[in-house]
Amino acid sequence: MREVAIVGVGMTHFGELWNDSLRGMFAEAASGAMADAGVDHLDGLYVGNMAAGQFVGQEHLGPLMASQIGMAGIPATRVESACASGGAALRAAYIEVASGMSDLVMAAGVEKMNDGADVTQVLATAADQELEAYHGATFPALYALIARAHMATYGTTEEDLAWVSVKNHHHGAMNPKAQFRREVTVEQVLGSSKVAEPLRLLHCSPVSDGAAAVLLCPLDQAARYTKRPVKILGTGLATASLSLADRKSPAILDAVKDSAVHAYKMAGVGPGDIQVAEVHDCFAIAEICCIEALGLVEQGKGGAAARDGLTALGGKIPVNTSGGLKSKGHPVGATGIAQAIEIVEQLRGLSGDRQVQGAEIGLAQNMGGSGASSVVHIFGRV
Ligand code: COA
289 CB contacts (<8 Å, ≥6 apart)? Predict the structure, then answer.
């Protein structure tokens, strides 16, 4: 296999983008990535997208998006893995370049959630229909069950959950692309409206529109496109049952653990080597479970991590310096690519006020459903 680098990145602002279309957002992100690398052609395109068919009635995104950027004719495929679609698209692009099949491949993600669809119902199609959704379970409800299980097993508190939101809003306030650029306090989180107990509005990621794109090429060609390539050191993808009831414990995300094990092994590093991480905080409890499953903190100790400052900028292992899904926004199919962009920018030293000084190795973890699929990528400064 060839070594692979990311040589260009581009993304839209995330938020309620009522004036932007699905294809327009994609084109903005894709042309940004191509301009960043100074290229005017692609050998291939993967588009991560969860549910454009349901959100805006548009399927068949591969050829649509390729022609939108003047690339009609290239191999172009949509990749779907619920909220992990972006991460899965990045992995597909990585494999295509690493295999030697193609040289310059774009991995992108796009989602338009604000267009009138019943968002909660559309998202719930990624849950187990027979065992969960038909009985009324939505993702806030399923993550509430995960939170209750974590609280019962490890003593995690509602205040611990609130600190995750406080930290991520603090980071997001410094991110010009974020949906919510405002700080929140523990009191505000705990006073926000209940969505699915113990989860409140300010524990939840929002409903977002947006797109993101990265360009991959063989590492030995990267100097043609950029002075600051970032190498993909490892990739891992793993799955678990869709339904929470079929898992050993709802509080333990085995797909996240397994995807991390693969990625760490391939990269030849361990959790202790990670200096900055983007993890899938679709709800505050998800960040807690993910940092445990990734081995960034001990199992059961995730609850205290944000409260103790461990995962904040300046802490031992800064997590979600972009603001995470909570504050930056969560246009589901775009999220995995946007996470990769945050890590690439950190390793390039271009993160401004959010910069983790001297960061050389970073990790991005993107998850589908209530943890039924997980993709981990580990990146290294060249
Ligand atoms: N975080 C912070 N503020 C939020 C927010 C969020 N997640 N969601 C909405 N807001 C703000 C809005 O900006 C608005 O503020 P304003 O009154 O100052 O304009 C206010 O809260 C009410 O917004 P509204 O759109 O009416 O909220 P809602 O009740 O319709 O939706 C949630 C709130 C939490 C239910 C919705 O964001 C949601 O479903 N999130 C989860 C998405 C999800 O499941 N993703 C997939 C994960 S697997």
Answer: 146, 150, 251, 252, 253, 256, 302, 371
Catalytic, out of 150, 169, 330, 377: 330
- Please name the residue ranges forming H helices in the chain: 22-37, 52-55, 61-68, 85-98, 119-124, 139-154, 158-172, 186-191, 254-267, 284-293, 302-307, 324-328, 335-348
Number of domains in the chain: 2
Q: How far is the CA of 76 from the centre of ligand 1 (A)?
A: 33
Ligand 1 atom having least distance to the Cα of 123: 46
One domain for residues 26 and 157:
no
- Exactly one of 13, 83, 171, 289 is catalytic; name it: 83
Tell me the residue range of the domain where 77 lies.
4-117+207-230
C-alpha 54 chain-centroid distance: 21
Q: Say how far residue 343 (Cα) sits from the centre of its chain.
A: 11
> Going edge to edge, which strands form the sheet with 230-239?
76-79, 44-48, 105-112, 209-218, 4-11, 230-239, 373-381, 361-368, 276-278
CA of 203 to the centre of ligand 1 (A): 10
* Distance of alpha carbon 177 from the chain centroid: 15
pLDDT tier, 200 (very low <50, low <70, confident <90, very high otherwise): very high
pTM, 2 dp? 0.98
Q: Collapsing DSSP states into helix, strand and coil, what is residue 356?
A: coil
Q: Which residues contact 66 (CB under 8 A, 6 or more apart)?
A: 42, 45, 72, 73, 74, 76
* Alpha carbon of 124 to ligand 1 centroid (Å): 16
Verify that 45 and 135 share a domain, yes or no.
no
> What pLDDT is attached to residue 278?
99
pLDDT for 87-118, tens place per residue?
A: 999 999 999 999 999 999 999 999 999 999 99
